[in-house]
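Late entry, evening session. Most of the bench is empty. Finally got around to the prediction I had been postponing all week. Sequence below, unchanged from the version circulated by S.P.
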Amino acid sequence: MSIPRTPSFRLDGRRALVTGASSGIGRAAALALADAGAAVTLVARRAETLETVRAEIETEGGTAEILPLDITDIAATDAALDARAPFDVLVNSAGLARHSPAVDTTPEDYDAVTDLNVRAAYFLTRAVAKRLIAAGKPGSLINVSSQMGHVGAVDRALYCATKHALEGMTKSMAVEWGAHGIRVNTLCPTFIRTPLAEQTLKDPERRAWIESKIKLGRVGEVEDLMGPVVFLASDASALMTGTSLLIDGGWTAE
């Protein structure tokens, strides 16, 4: 009887596209993928912040290039991907949150948040998959969702709506593209200490509420997501598709 071997977590020879790569979860994901051997393309709107992340990756011996791009511009995004070889890995980390009571949600906030969190995510994931299918290549596409894609919360009706939509889209895409060897999953963090979460975390009452819901008793750090990102991108998760990897400290366990 042969001895089973642990599948590799390495990503040598693979190309990874990371959106929202200039800060927070996207930056951490890019650093983690590069450390695992992937050649990473960094996407965000501001070139100067991407250059900082590229330098960080190269200082650690990794490979990275920058792609300044607003992914809500679908035509520009398609054109940029058409000019490049297919990406084996996608980490779609670009996101926006505008929290308020549901009765106070404005059409402007609704359009801005859904435009990035749902519309841009949908067409970017589609664009990466189309090029993999045309090339006859497998891939791992990761949409950064949230625990709020599985539960609700006060002042987060709009954000939760977008993340629930992302979960449904991911499942359907996984069903469609499984035959091509393309896996599609979501990464669902709890509150992570990033610039996006800072406004919430600096409120003592909100911070106490958050820590009471997280069974491990602490807010997440970006380092808590780096291993899971590599896992989803690598052969170690080869039989996972259409599902959610919850990194929520037990928030959704009850």
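Two things to note before I forget:
The chain has a mean pLDDT of 96.
Residues 15-244 form a domain with the Rossmann fold fold (CATH 3.40.50.720).
Will write this up properly tomorrow.
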